[in-house]
Amino acid sequence: MQSATLLVEIGTEELPPKALKGLSQAFGDALQKQLQEHNIATGTMHLFASPRRLAVQLQDVATQQADQVVEKRGPSVDVAFDADGNPTKAAEGWTRSNGITVAEADRLKTDKGEWLLYKAEVKGQPLAGLLPEFVQRALAQLPIPKPMRWGTSNVQFIRPVHTVTMLHGDQLIPGEVLGVASSNHLLGHRFHCPQGATLTSADDYEATLEGAYVLADFAKRRQRIVDGISAAAKAAKGVIREDNDLLDEVTALVEWPVALTASFDESFLDVPKEPLIVTMKDDQRYFPLEDSEGNLLSKFVFVTNIESKDPAQIISGNERVVRPRLADAQFFFETDKKTPLESRVAALGNVLFQKQLGSIKDKSDRISQVAAGIATKLGQSGDVAARAGYLCKADLVSQMVSEFPETQGVMGMHYARNDGEADGVAEAIFEHYLPRFSGDSLPQSIPGCAVALADKLDSLVGIFGIGQTPKGDRDPFALRRAAIGLLRIIVEKDLPLDLQELIALSRESFGELLSNANVADDVLEFLLGRFRPMYQEQGISVDVIQAVLARRPTAPVDFDKRVRAVASFRELPEAEALAAANKRVANILAKVEAPIADKVDSGLLSAQEEIGLVKALEEAEMRSSSALEQGDYTGALKALAALQKPVDGFFDNVMVNADDTAVRENRQALLQRLRGLFLQIADISVLNN
After folding, report:
1. What is the per-residue pLDDT for 104?
2. For the chain: N or C, fewer Cβ within 10 A?
3. Closest among 328, 323, 325, 281 to 302, alpha carbons compared
4. Which UniProt keywords apply (predicted)?
């Protein structure tokens, strides 16, 4: 069967830049799936995406569907023929409907009987007759939250469609998609090639567009931007901080990228760099330049979509555009500095946190109280943490944060320093928002950790305390993120804190506000449940996490040590047998209704294997207890791994449920002792093979 490269392109108005990569991948996947589901062979797929187009190029696409043999089963032989072997009406009706005679029907024999069978050959349809519908279906499956209409048509898509190209090899496939007829006309660069280009072969798509000043390949266009801004930064003796999201967005905004360098008045550098960076990146999609020490320079790199004969004009235009935004930041900063943070706290009383839990000021008061308590638990004076907690939300009512919400916390730090607050207070104000996202940095100072924990606890205990727990995808207060952030801080900063004590400390700060009597248990359960996704993200298997969760340790650092120990134990050659033995022991003990003795009576031991197991248990207890005293769970489990052979020998040769009651109960006590050794660390019976 013949094959050729297939090219499908949808030419549009400018597509949403943040959605472009997702739309491209979804279009390619959906179209390829349509072809494969309809038995049209395809080869390698190459996706193209630029501001004004989505395109899919597929190698080795067959010219038509593969022929198929369709088997149609008819009535069973005992129904198809009477006692004399003559066809019945059922057989004749079935064969007639298939255009054959009874004599021409095949037979299908199975272990359940024999049936009449008709094998019909279905000829494959040409690709040209099927493709328009496939493209239409693929486009209908794209993740488009708000489609739009244009002109007088009822056709809907994410942006108005101007061209549709469906080319198989050098053959144009006729048809209509989204109300636009297929043609070999491609949209060129809006300014460099407004007349567009004509595509003569699907294999020439990328080269044809490049001749029309369009780099259609997203990855290649992105790399050209990286090379361009890197060269510009080097020439300006600056450094561009990596920002993949910004790179992707800029790549989705241009078709022929050219990197240029511009500058702004150095007086703006008196403003903290964070709001300047925010306005350059978020408002203008510029790449700020810093020196090797992280200080902002008065230069920036931007990417234009035109190769100008007079780039100075473009540079000047961008400098004029950014100046008012930087001037706004400068004005806000100078104005905000005139009002101390402490004077802003009262205004937080007018900002609602949650109707039942009060204002942001109420929250700040609680954070201050709890942060002081946490700092004390960590062996420090609570004064710095209390002060930072009291001021930590004050910058929310500043002009700068009102205009640039992304700068909350960091501006509080700058304003605190301007007010003469202690460095520890200023740092903690910034750090209390950390971590802001998965993989983000953590607070470095003890006061910063204390305030961050107090803030997250306040949200968790408060929202659970009024019965508004996260359900499904609904989590308006970001409690899941707060919970994982809280656990990360305690674990990664190795803080000797217990969740139950922290929850109690936070609950006390609410006074009589909370209506949920079970809030402490609910929050603890929620926090313990967050360990699973946190460790799964680190590659820890679910059964290891479940083994530790079964023991419900409430000190996160202790939980982490147990998880690491069980993960290490799971790799030992003895682990599988001991996990199975523990499961067997758990099942045996679960069926025992009477209380089990605490001690094993050596006088009732008779079998060599049970005597040997007792001796091995005593040795393992001694070695593991020494490790446990030092918090070395890994060493303790390695010591217990030596029990594998004695345990296997016991189960191979000793009957636990002996007829003699005293002997049976003594062996049950022995098994309970064995299981108790492992349960000091985790329930390894839940480990999978």
Report:
1. 84
2. C
3. 281
4. Aminoacyl-tRNA synthetase, ATP-binding, Cytoplasm, Ligase, Nucleotide-binding, Protein biosynthesis
